[in-house]
Amino acid sequence: MKRILTFVSFLMCGLALQAQPAGGFGGWQMPQIDVHCSEKFADLDYVGDDQVYHKLDIYLPKVEKESYPVAIHVYGSAWFSNNSKGMADLGTIVNALLDAGYAVVTPNHRSSMDAKFPAQIHDIKAVVRYVRGNADKYKFDTDFIVTSGFSSGAHLASLAATSNGVAELEGSLGAYTNYSSLVDAACCWSGPTDLNYMSCGREVDDWNHGPEEAVMGFAFKGNEEAFKALNATKYIDPSDPPIVVFHGTADNVVPVCQGEHFHELLAKAGIMTELHLVDGGGHGMGMYAAENLEAMTSFLERARISKAVKEDFVPCASNQPGKQYPMVNSERIVRAQLKAPNATTVKLDLGGVKYPLKRDENGVWTGESAPQDEGFHYYQFEVDGASVPDPNSLYYYGASRWGSGIEIPAHDQDFYAVKNVPHGDIREVTYWSETNKEMRHCFIYTPPGYDKNKKKRYPVLYLQHGGGENEYGWAVQGKTGLIMDNLIAEGKAEEFIIVMDNGTWTMPRPAAPAQRPAAPARPQGAQQAPGMELPSNWADGFMNTLINDIIPMVDSRYRTKADSKYRAMAGLSMGGLQTKTITMANPDVFSALGIFSGGVISVEEAAQTKGFRDAYKLVFISFGSREVEVPRYGHDPKVVTEELKASGMNAHYYVSPETAHEWQTWRRSLYQFAQLLFK
User: Fold this and answer.
1) Residues 6+ positions from 119 with CB-CB distance below 8 Å
2) Is the separation of the CB atoms in 426 and 455 below 8 Å?
3) Among 193, 303, 634, 674, which lies 20 to 30 A Cα-Cα from 568?
4) Is 15 within a domain?
5) By the 8 A CB rule, do 305 and 371 touch?
6) 620 and 649 within one domain
7) Residue 59: beta bridge partners?
8) Together in a domain, 480 and 352
9) 523: pLDDT strictly greater than 90
10) What is the largest CA-CA distance in the chain?
11) Up-side HSE of residue 116: CA atoms within 13 Å toward CB?
């Protein structure tokens, strides 16, 4: 049956829909969209002729930075619209790009009724030059510019990527003709990239070429060769930038063979490319699931990295002796390698992102990550879907299993470096817990000279790990011993003992489905996932072990100052929550507390807890800067802590620069907290 469904009829049907999915339909979306931006610049004239088709909008991400990579996203309209920038996939693709840290530019362009091809691609290339010419004004990082688009917008985005240097497609619009129109990557969503292949290679071309005939200005039949000028595929060569392709298998406007054909030609030319076929996806409908949007931003991040990776890689300090991989360079990019000759796919799973590795002829898989935050991170490989540790790494306990870890050099790593100073000991201790009727295990740090001066007694800090970790966390990943040795050697901290025990707690599972009881009110500052409420007695198990077993054991075996004013508790994440719960319940046991990425203590909580204000001489709250860039819990922890300080308590607030919910945040927190303790 002859294909007669055109772009126009399909889009008109889309506009007639009364109910639309969240984010809207394809390239035609309702304007009442919550765009995830901090600032919008509307109706900027990128050519200077005051024509509506030469206006663009700029959206900057909510997380403000000195500069942003740029994504130019082009709406779909079968080239029939000259003013649809306000409906350019704002609730889907644009928001995903903004959330990933891109400044997003949504331009209008001339329609097929305003001018004939190549006017449309001249417009998009003028937008690219405008971006470069206004980099300082709008904080654009022009080292990485992406074109993206849906449908006919994807055609223009793809053509901009493959046609660099093609003189007849450059144009001379605008005031920035001395700037390059080169782009660094492209995203093709449901795009027609080879108009001569719309019938998917069938002998008889029965496709209705109405939209492309309108933009070209003449009939397709008899002019097939001339129509090739419109095709992004015509200009493919090995110098083209990375391109990711998304297409629905049920697309009846632009057939899925377009995406498959484009990807095949890109791959054949050796271009970095990925094809994501969305099962059952139509022309816009069903295409924008979270995993597809994440695949787009992940691809772009890898493309950005591959553009200019510095080849100054060195083996990581966390490798097993003699192992060269993984490596890290001065940009904090990780290069990992695994020999798996029988595997079909291998990915590096690091920092919540899975980076595909490439296989060589010997079955060795190699690839790079995005730049990582400074400090320690857990990671693993995913081999054909199975998670496996790296045989080259030392092993660490985290994420509730023994696995690989990697150390990314930090600019301030001197505070936990191994130096020629007096060193204390990390002692491995086994003891009986009467509370739990079992033997338990912990690590105890004793300061330099502990065994020499038998008369000296010491304060004690009880230091707790986070969820999915155990007593090894602070002793190994946290580098507690080295931090304290260096502080003591520099005269910045008092000498004290540190006890690192296992406070593991898991949410109990009900034996059978039951109606969920009303959850207890969460105190201000408790940091937990939305929808997750901790039982009121969740910390009782470890609290009883600590109060009844651990503290008495430490006071009996070690020369401690067994008095509350010489006893402190601190913890990270879950351990911070435990610290808050336990110290507020036991003001007669401790005199100082530190909560690292685990919440805050408000003025109201302090006032409502009997004995708290009199007992605690130090309250220390800290977070990584990336944890507090966007408020998530209905309060600003800095404000809450400053209010506590203003109420008369010795409260301190610290933010670790350029880190998230991770070990470098907590190493720095311990470094700061330790200098305030027992003084």
Assistant:
1) 110, 171
2) no
3) 634
4) no
5) yes
6) yes
7) 40, 104
8) no
9) no
10) 102
11) 9
Single out the residue in 276, 292, 307 at which a domain terminates: 307
Is residue 399 included in any domain, yes or no? yes
- Paired with 568 in beta bridges are 461, 592
Q: What six digits make up the tokens of 596?
A: 């690292």
90 secondary structure, DSSP code: I
Host domain of residue 179? 21-307
| pLDDT over threshold 50, residue 10 | no
385 by Cβ neighbours in 10 Å (0-12 / 13-18 / 19+) ranks as exposed
Q: Is residue 349 a contact partner of residue 389, using CB atoms and an 8 Å limit? A: no
Contacts of 88 (CB under 8 A, 6+ apart): 27, 29, 73, 74, 75, 94, 106, 150, 153
CA–CA gap between residue 570 and residue 606 (Å, rounded):
17
Residues 460 and 554 in one domain: yes
On whether the CB atoms of residues 207 and 201 are closer than 8 A, the answer is: no
Average confidence score pLDDT of the chain: 90
Residue 616, token pair as written in the block: 């605690």
Same domain, 171 and 250: yes
345 within some domain: yes
d(C-alpha 33, C-alpha 54), whole Å:
23
CATH of the domain at 622: 3.40.50.1820
> If we measure between CA atoms, which residue out of 618, 564, 561 comes closest to residue 588?
564
pTM across the whole model: 0.64
More reliable by pLDDT, 368 or 280: 280
Question: Residue 358 sits in a domain of what CATH number?
Answer: 2.60.40.10
Which residues are within 8 A (CB) of 43 and not within 5 positions of it... i.e. 6 or more apart?
55, 56, 57
Same domain for 583 and 658, yes or no, is: yes
Q: List the one residue out of 73, 250, 204 whose CA is nearest residue 148.
A: 73
With H, G, I as helix, E, B as strand and everything else as coil, classify residue 626.
Answer: helix
* 159 within 8 A of 215, measured Cβ to Cβ: no
Whether 152 and 258 share a structural domain? yes
Spatial neighbors of 403 by CB under 8 A, at least 6 apart, are 378, 379, 380, 389, 395, 396
Instruction: Kindly tell me if the per-residue pLDDT of 576 is higher than 70.
Output: yes
User: How many domains, the chain?
Assistant: 3
Residue 4 maps to a domain: no
Exposure string over 13-26, b if 16+ CB within 10 A, otherwise e: ebeeeeebeebbbb
Q: Which of 61, 243, 72, 66 is nearest to 141 (CA)?
A: 66
